[in-house]
Amino acid sequence: MAEQRTRLDTPLHKSRNPFVNRRRAVGGDDGAGQVAESIARFLGTPSFIIWLTVFCLVWIGWNTLAAEEMRFDDAALGFTALTLMLSLQASYAAPLILLAQNRQTDRDRVAAEQDRQRTERNLADTEFLAREMASLRVALQDVATRDYVRGELRELLEDIGEQTRKEVRKEVRREVRNEIRTEIRGELRSEVLTEVRSEVREEIRAELAAERKRRKRKERQARREFQAYLEEQESDSPEEE
């Protein structure tokens, strides 16, 4: 806690009780400096000038317009007490202002030190990033570039296109062959059917002709037998008579 209070860039812990905060500001290691800085800041405000002007006017008016028994700083003496008070205020104001300036200088020094450290960190980060970028560039020299990858992809696409064309040609040839085979088979089948039909017709015609001849032969034999039978009957009838 003591180290944190000695640093000018570390704020003190504030409590809700104003008397506790005032006791910490006055009783701490840097309490006098904080009180002096607060007084110096108040001396540089318009409210201090207004209050000091009102105080001087009241002082002068009271010691000028009031009764002589009630005056405590006679105007004939040149307001000696007021002059001493203003001189005392000025003598204390100058060191307080210097102390506040010294504290502000310390704060500026701390801020400058922090800015310097931040700048050094940024510079170190920038150098690290530059080294990393250089190492990445060296590593990317062996890596394929975009144009190279595009060229390889185009060659692959061309090879794939040629292979697909060959495969499509083979498939088309197979399909055409199958279609031609089916057509030829159909034509051959129709031709065979016509030939078979003609042959069957010829065979049927020959069979019918042979059947007719057989029938004619049978009819002739039957007629001959019938005539022979009639002749036998005729020859047998006169003998009986």
Automatic annotation (TrEMBL):
It comes from the Bacteria. This is Putative membrane protein. The chain crosses the membrane at residues 48-65, 77-99. Keywords: Membrane, Transmembrane, Transmembrane helix. PANTHER family: INTEGRAL MEMBRANE PROTEIN-RELATED, MEMBRANE PROTEIN. It comes from Serinibacter salmoneus. InterPro entries: DUF1003 (IPR010406).
